[in-house]
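Attaching the record inline, Q. Sequence:
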Amino acid sequence: AGGPDQVWLWSRALGDRRQVTRIAGGVTQMDWAPDSRRIVVSAAIAQERTEDEGDSDLIYIRTIREKVESQRTWLPDYRMRRQLLVVDTSSGDVKQITCGAWDHVQPAWSPTREEIAFVANRTEDPDLMVMADVWVVDATGKHMRLLTEGKGVFGNPRWSADGETIVAIGHEYESGQPTRTSCVSGRCREMGRAGSVGPSNWT
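Structure, as predicted:
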C-alpha cells in the first residue's frame, strides 16, 4: 500500500497476487510481449549525474523543465525521465532499453517481432519544441528508428496483427487536424480524420 505504482500479477486460478516490478520512480504504462513472459514498461528513472556534477550537492539546472520541477520536488526527482524497461515476469529481471534526457512513453510490443513502438520527443531541446514522434526499438535496445520524421505530434501507436504496420493518431504541423496515420518502414500515410476517437485500434 502506498508508494509509486508498480506492476502486479494476479492468478485467477490460485487467487493470489505477486509484485513484478520494484522501480523507485514507479510505472506509468506497460504492454505484454507476445510470449507473455515479458512486459515493457514506461517508468520514471533518474538520469545519471555528469562528470561536471560529480558528487556535488549543488542542483544543476540545464532545461526549463528542470527549473520548474526543481521547485516542486527534491533530488533526484527533478532529473527523472520516463524510460522503457523490459521486465521478465518470472524472475523480475529488468533491462533498460532507452536512455537520455527524453521521456519515452506509450510502449506497444509488436505481436510478431522483438520490436516495441513508442512515443518520444527526442529533439535537441524538447522543452522548446512541441513534437511527439513514433519510434521503434528492438527489445534489446540496440537498434532504434524514427517513423514519423519529426513533422508533428503523434501518439497511441498500435500494431497490425501481422506486425507489418503501425497506426497512430496525430497530425503534421501543416494540417493541424488529428488524423489516423499508418506507418510502414518509416513511410507514413494519412488514413482519415480521427475526430474525438481515443487510442487507435485495429479492427
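The radius of gyration is 18 Å. DSSP finds one helix and 14 strands in the chain.

More tomorrow.
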